[in-house]
Amino acid sequence: MFRTTNRRVRLSEAQPDRNDSSASSFGRVAAFGLNPARRTFVLIIALAMIPLQLWAGVLRGMIHDGETGDVLIGANVFIEGTTRGASTNIGGRFTIGDLDAGKYTVRISMLGYESLDTLAEIGATDTLWLHAMLKPSALELGEVNVETERTKSGLDNSSVVRREVIPGEELRARSTDGKLMSALAGKTGIRTKPCALCGSMGVGMQGLDPSYTEVNVDGMPVLSGLGTLYGMDGLSVSDVKELQVTKGSGSNLFGSGAIAGAINLVSAKPARARTLNGNVSMNNNAQNTVSLSATGLTGKLPTRISLLNSAEPNIVDEDHNGLTDTPKYRRFSGQIGVSPNLGRGELRLGGRLYDERRFAGETNWNKSDRGSADVYGREIYTKRNELSARYDAPTSGSFHWSIEGASAMHNHESWYGTSHYNAQQTLVLGKLSTKKTWNERNSTVGELAFNHEEYDDNLAVATKTDYLYDTPGLTLEHTLELASENRLTLQGGSKVEYWHDYGTQVVPRGTLLWKPDLATGVRLSGGAGFRPVSIFSSEEALMSGFADVTVPDELKPERSVAGSVALNRQWLGRKVGFSLDVSTFYTHFTSKLILRNGHEAGSTVYINSDFAYSAGTELQTTVTTTSGWTLDAGGRLSQVRYKDEQGDMRNAEFQNQYMLNSSLRKSFAKSGITAELSNAVYGPQFLPEGRGREKSPAYTIWDLGLSKAWKNVTLSASLKNLFDWTQSEDPYLRDPQTGHLILDSSLIYGPLLGRTAALSLSWNLNEF
User: Which residues of 443-480 are buried (b: 16+ CB within 10 A; e: fewer)?
Assistant: First the structure.
């Protein structure tokens, strides 16, 4: 049942917020050194950031979960006796303006929490702030006990393993083109830097490439293998309810690919309510994206339909060297979901189609030049389809079970210069999941899974590249609370799988969580990893291509042991909230696939290394204020080393030694304007021998964004690569004898495309 409490906020505790001139200094810094056109653009943003004098009272604040300290998104704040109210945004903040001087009763409520009444006295020109903590509650209606979903943002303090949750609202606010990958750019510890030549983009973590990240959709590894590297570009942010990120050794039970971490995309559910969401974006190179999603079109059956079409229709060559600066492409994705009405439980059915063609190379290339040595080009055609079904049984006391299945068919046809690479991947997945809560301190999760994976290609190399796996598996995980109020929790489990070529493999994992208080969490995690590999298992294969490839007789599966220590701390002040997240990780490989460039440009060498490691530290901080300022800053320092064929230790190529990122954002709740300045620092990468130097240079990319939100419409503008930085070295070389183009992929370390400007319009219509 809802319970209501009363608390008085004294006016003496609230400080007026009348003078804020910090934005003007930001405008001076941003405009320094820019030409008139750029200064005009920056000046507009700077002027927008100068707060107006408020001649009426304003109530501002932040709402938090009383148990975990997480900010709450969508909490309702209502001033009784008036029609004024607001809901908290993705940062848990709200603003109610134009209030006459006087005393008010403020009611704060959210489904799944006890409501809170607060007495507040506001002056004629005062800005009164408050922080409120809502206590979780279940809705009890007679014999029915309904557990509600609570939207989280940031680190999930209720999870034993370290898990970061990015809600769909934040993803949509961060995306500059309606696509998921642009929303993840700049997140600490997540690398989404695209291949400058082929344009493919995955999600890398802890200094390892994206192939070491397991990507699940609703808990199923539909995007594994080829899908991880070529299936994520077409995902729309409107299709994602929330994104869950688990890094390091706490992720290995997600699947064999979760060596560096795992991402779980929680899909937006079908609904009866009629909604229509959309996004249209375009940049100065005519790159454009249109995405649409709708629910409840039938009025009776819960449905959801989503469409995305994106294209770079032109050949872009800003430096006029006869080579593309960014891939030319066209991309289409369509998705449908239905939830048939059942008497008991919930059934969801879904399907997705993805079709893409992209090209990069010499600007005078055409389709007749496929496989030609005279005109270099990379053309990649991808086509995949996915099907999924999930049934959640009604909860019976302390026991719950669900069953789900999925399939994916991926066709990949490409030309890498003179090399033709054609591959097909088929996935058929099934899983039965159970959860049993034994008592207040003990619970067990079990999964029985079967994965069928088939891969076939046309490569003629020394090692076998085709494979067929039918892999049954069993996962058990138990959680034990060693102390009251979740102060000390131990969680451990194992995944047992049978592989035809490698026998039974046991992958254990354990995590100890210590929470000395509500705002502090210390996690100690450890586990093992096992990953069968193929010639396409490394992201570097996309950049290097398949010409002049040296492969050993057998590619051995990767085996690893990992450990990590993480500390999370939150501080909540009267006007400022601060969070700190620090983690240190180490992964030891007794067998690892290594891809490196040879001494000759255009040559690629695969080796099995019997000793390798990845080690590093990540730091992430967030500062939020009730006045609308948010500062995010963080970075990663890591090292990946391996033993080569001669027994010498070498540094892995393609991996940045460090990455730093920061963003400063100001939100004006009353006007709906948000301005953001962000940057990313990419550390040097080690280069192979024969390139004249040991490392590539470090570089910094700055981005600028401005958005204006109305009730159902948001208009956004952005400048990417604000200072027009591109790498100085040309990865394209000419054979001195034939004049043919040779690509040295080791020299692709930074962007080849300079500054781009973009506009985006998005809308959200409910019950239209």
Answer: bebbbebebebebebebeeeeebeeebebebebbbebe
Question: What span, in angstroms and rounded, lies between the C-alpha atoms of 174 and 760?
Answer: 12
pLDDT (mean) for 464-489 = 87
Q: Is the pLDDT of residue 537 over 70?
A: no
Q: What is the C-alpha to C-alpha distance for residues 495 and 468, in angstroms, rounded to an integer?
A: 21
Please report, for residues 73, 92, 166, 703, the alpha-carbon distance to residue 663 in angstroms, rounded to integers and kept in the order given.
Answer: 21, 18, 16, 9
Please report, to the nearest 10 degrees, the dihedral formed by the alpha carbons of residues 67, 71, 72, 76 taken in order. Answer: 110
Secondary structure of 196-243 in HEC code, one letter for each residue? CCCCCCCCEECCECHHHEEEEECCECCCCCHHHHHCCCCCEHHHEEEE
Q: Given this model, what pLDDT does residue 464 score? A: 63
Read off the pLDDT of residues 214-268 as tens digits, 9 standing for 90 and up.
888 888 888 776 666 666 777 888 888 888 888 877 777 777 778 888 888 888 8
Let me know: does 684 contact 695? Beta carbons within 8 Å: yes
The one-letter code for the residue type at 60 is R
With a cut of 90, say whether residue 471 has pLDDT above it: yes
Which of 329, 334, 335, 446 has its CA nearest to residue 378? 329
pTM recorded for the entire structure: 0.77
Domain 5-18+53-138, CATH class in plain words: mainly beta
Q: Where are the domains of the chain?
A: 5-18+53-138, 266-766
| Per-residue pLDDT reduced to its tens digit, 705-738 | 999 999 889 999 999 999 999 988 777 777 777 7
**DSSP per residue, 63-112:** EEETTT--B-SS-EEEETTSS-EEE--TTSEEEEEEEPSEEEEEEEE-TT
Return the number of other C-beta atoms located less than 10 Å from residue 242's C-beta.
20
Separation in Å, CA 665 to CA 338, 373, 631, 674, 718: 38, 49, 6, 7, 13
Picking from 246, 210, 208, the residue whose alpha carbon sits closest to that of residue 639 is 208
The answer to whether 493 and 509 are in contact (CB under 8 A) is yes
Going from the C-alpha of 36 to that of each of 24, 32, 33, 285, the distances in angstroms are: 18, 11, 10, 21
Domains 5-18+53-138 and 266-766 share a fold: no
Task: Let me know if domain 266-766 sits in CATH 2.40.170.20.
Answer: yes
Phi first, then psi: what are they for 18, rounded to 5°?
Answer: -95, -30
